[in-house]
Fold this protein.
Amino acid sequence: MADTGEDDGTRTGNRVDIDGDATGPVIAGNYNVVVDAQHGSTVTVLMDGRRPRPRRRDRIRLLPRRQGTPLGRDADLAAIAAALHGGESVQLWGPPGVGKSALLRYAARTLDAGGDGVVFLDAARREPEDLAQDIFEACHSTGGYAPSRGELPQLMEGVEATVYVDNADYTAEQLRTVMDAAPDALFVFAGREEVLRGTDGRAHRVEGITRDAAAELLTRELGGPGDPGLVTALWEAAAGTPLLLLRAAAVARLDPAAALPRPGAVRELLHPLFDRLDEPSLRALHLLGTFRDAELDPEHIGALSGTPDAAALCAGLAGLGLAEETELGYRVADGVVAALRERQGLRPYALERLCGYFADWAARPETPAAQVAGHARALEVLAELAEQSGRADLAVRVVRAASPALARSLRFGVWGRLLDQGLPAAQRAGDRQAEAYFTHERGVRAVLTGNRVLAAVLLAEAGILWRQLGDTQGADAAANAQQYVPQEPGAGAGSPDAGSPDGPGDGLTNPPEGGASDLGSSGTDPGPLQDPTAGTAPSTPSPEPAPPSETGASLPADPGPAAPDMPTGPSDPGVPVASDPVSASGAATSGGGMPVDPGPPLGSASLPPGAADLGGAVVTGGAPVAGVSAAVATALKVAAVIAALTIAVVAVQQSQDGSESRSATPVSGSTTMDAGFGDPTPEPEPEPEPEPTGLAGIWWSSEGGGIEFVEAGAGRYTARARDVCGDTITAEFSGGGDTYSATAPAYDMSSGSCGEVLGQVRTTITIGEDGDTASVTREMASTVREGVTCYTCTPFTLTRAS
């Protein structure tokens, strides 16, 4: 990993020096990962003493880019300095455009760093775990290493840096999580809402600048003083917001014949500014608007907009209050996207060209992984636009190209977000190879972040998909990774984790309790993990994308800014790229905004006839594509209950095979089964028993092991099990004749451990005519919201023990 940051504040970015599709290693916790863009990554456990030993930097200095001095902020700077001097962290908060970012950057460059140095980071659209890795790499020469959740605070212990974090629109809990990752550092956050309170630190509200500061700002921008009465009226109308005052000065500066705008128009200056832009500037601004809240490197802005000096052009847009300078490049300023959607006559960008450009760039071996991770939000926006335009194939192309680099960047949060987009896109496009790949990589990521339930389910699913495709290398990689699924705390010593604080994890979250790896917690080898999705349920063919026309499909109306506790959700649907209205039978059509050109579809979106749809994302529910990540997370939530009978299977099997002198205990209404280890002395021949009826007795499952049903009277049978939440449950089946059913709750498993109940899953057992075989089906009986579909509701069979 290259060092980051120089004394002059120019940033080179972080990079993992790994080239090609299948090179390595990438090391996370105890795991060594070889990233493979074709067959899915492989996982091994490091031998003792082989983990990298990060070296603390002698001088920590990662400063923001130089920008102008904010006016009228002496009191704010004094408040920040006082808090830091007293050993307190600070949160700057206030509405967009009020000047938080300018204040934060200036403070990072001018206030006494003290301790070990200064780190400046931008948290926009970043998961807390990725931000924690940023801080770690800024303070250490890491050798391409992501420490485990237990090791990270230990490595950061004693690092007394001051960490400035812009756009930290996190919840209080997320802020604490970031702070806990560097326990001896002080933090200065900037965000929209006040969330830091109490012992965590102090919150400082950033308000508009004073009248004198507003007059100084306008004088500086106009090259001379303005009319004092008009300046005062503008300051009052803008509530001292520097961004609005900057735009007011820009309108007058771009048109020498024009005066300052009227105070009543101070909040409606974007269209007058657009009218005064030259064609290259408007084209570049339109490109930034197309990518919504994502930041772009000037290199990409120039290549896609055809402007020769994109850096200087974008700096000019920032000076007009239309763009925002970031550490990576530029993003559109607040409010601009909505105004661009209303403007007529802008030449739209072709979606296929945008996707092709970024897919090719991300897949190049020479492209630094950190650069791909830095553009992850732009890639995410492209995938969303492709899905909304009925071009799932383009979304697959972008995510598939970026995934290896995102894995190598060690930014597992954003890697997971893109994989969550790629998987349902692959299913909708009918791309089975990509579906296998995304399922596999999601499983590997779950191993690295300690999510045992997700890892077990996804890797088993990936193995099936690879085998269906005839890819033995991918199937072997998935099977190999399954043996490293993290075990619960206190698991056997053979586990790579074994409850150690240095075991694998996301660096921020506790390992989930209960789950698929509980199957091996008895001390006996349960053999390979059973596939919880075994079965051949026919798939539902995906609809063909509607063919494009020549006018264009609109993108969704602006839903407004994201809530502060949901930093990863889209805050603005953006300015579309060009195209046609897509019919309701194809992709979602949305209101407001400009056309998007999806181009012709690159392949069929339907599955082959009779193909089993074993994809990892089975929750769709009609949510817009912007909610794909949430839908995929929900898809895994219902896996918990489905595993209950499988766990019961193993429990019965162990009760029979775990002792040499024990046989199955007879129960009322059940058959007696000899485990095969009884007294060697011959026993008298037992009297023939009547043929069993109903469910009573022990049944062998096609998913492995046996299930014991106990008759409870009046057509009811019970089966005891331990579910994935670690609780002992009694599933009661009721019915009559040949059909019996039971329901059990479906838990939220999106974090790898049990959360809220999402609904009920019904398991139905139908006994065959011979009385000795039965088919088992599972379905969602009820849900707490629309769009929840069972992830592992595939059929299996039971055979009565003889």
Q: What stands out?
A: The radius of gyration is 30 Å. Residues 1-23, 489-576, 578-596, 601-683 have pLDDT under 50 and may be disordered.
